[in-house]
Design brief:
- This protein is α+β, with helices and mostly antiparallel strands and about 325 residues long.
- The protein has 13 helices and seven strands.
- The strands form two sheets. Strands 4-3-7-6-5 form a five-stranded antiparallel β-sheet, with helices on both faces. Strands 1-2 form a two-stranded antiparallel ribbon.
- The longest helix has 24 residues.
- The radius of gyration is 24 Å and the shape is globular.
Length: about 325
């Protein structure tokens, strides 16, 4: 049973229950409430848990649990994104996915940089709630990020909430429905957006008084290697434009959508894709993705050295 038991949509025709004869109703219509949110007892308890958790270690467990119950989401995950560290899992409520063998470490080893939600953060996306259909590339389900990671989550739809902590970091909350369930409806997205001011206010206060999240040096080093690989992968063999096309290929963009992003012809992108595969000696998207991932440990942070050179050189894995 959802925490929300009723969504009312008042109309201008709804009669008033009572008028005080000493104070006649004004002729000017009052601004009407668009949503009237009614919570059951569990819902009230969860809002109370959010308030009680501010500044405490369990804050995001309470916030994610409330949002999940609000729209009957099967999965709820809170992550912190930072510009100089790899993402950090703050809260994971996905028991079924874990039982099926979904592993957070696979995401953290490098594929996160191809996650459309992480890319929204990098682009400076505004705070808000975003349905999955609004941000995934057109070839997302054919991408290797989907095949190697996302498919194992068994998610069929998500609503993703982004909120910026400061200039260097943001929180992301993923609310997901698993296969065998219906995708989220527009009304459920509207409901999440309706409660965001409450949730964001609690998050803001939480980060004002809570101890900052900690990251070890491995988090920083892995992130720097991933960033270096994204910047320099194939630089010894590919042109600058071909390297831009590689990014879109790995992220799940079709030739048509890549051409739109790079303001060129689709035929040009198709030719560049063929050139990329020929120069890198890859025969498919899967081989290209595998090569990219294998190059990450060989990247040199803060340099413009192509990690592919080290990967294929003496002492490399190739």
């Amino acid at each position: 049973m959802n925490a929300v038991t009723q969504l009312k949509y008042p109309t201008r025709d709804t009669p008033a229950v009572m008028h005080n004869p000493d104070f006649p109703a004004a002729d000017t219509p009052r601004r009407r409430t668009r949503f009237a949110l009614a919570l059951d007892a569990d819902g009230v308890d969860q809002v109370a848990a959010i308030a009680a958790g501010v500044g405490q270690a369990g804050f995001y467990d309470a916030a994610v649990a409330f949002l999940r119950r609000l729209i009957d989401a099967d999965v709820g995950i809170a992550m912190q994104y930072s510009i100089d560290k790899r993402p950090q899992y703050i809260c994971v409520q996905a028991d079924a996915a874990r039982k099926r063998g979904a592993r957070e470490a696979v995401y953290m080893d490098g594929p996160y940089v191809l996650d459309p939600v992480y890319q929204m953060y990098q682009r400076g996306q505004a705070d808000g709630a975003y349905p999955m259909a609004s941000y995934v590339p057109d070839d997302f389900y054919d991408s290797e990020f989907y095949q190697c990671f996302f498919r194992n989550t068994h998610l069929v739809d998500t609503i993703d909430v982004l909120w910026r902590i400061d200039a260097r970091s943001s929180m992301a909350i993923c609310l997901g429905r698993e296969e065998g369930t219906a995708p989220f409806a527009e009304a459920e997205l509207a409901l999440v957006r309706h409660v965001l001011p409450l949730v964001f206010a609690a998050m803001r206060r939480h980060h004002e008084i809570a101890a900052p999240a900690t990251h070890d040096e491995e988090d920083r080093l892995v992130h720097r290697k991933v960033e270096s690989t994204m910047a320099n992968f194939g630089a010894s063999l590919l042109t600058k434009r071909e390297r831009e096309v590689v990014f879109y290929m790995l992220s799940g963009y079709s030739s048509e959508q890549t051409a739109e992003r790079l303001n060129t012809a689709e035929g040009t992108i198709r030719n560049q894709r063929k050139s990329i595969h020929r120069k890198l000696e890859t025969g498919s998207q899967a081989e290209l993705f595998s090569l990219f991932i294998q190059c990450i440990p060989f990247a040199e942070p803060d340099s413009d050295v192509d990690p592919l050179v080290r990967f294929q050189g003496p002492g490399g894995a190739a």
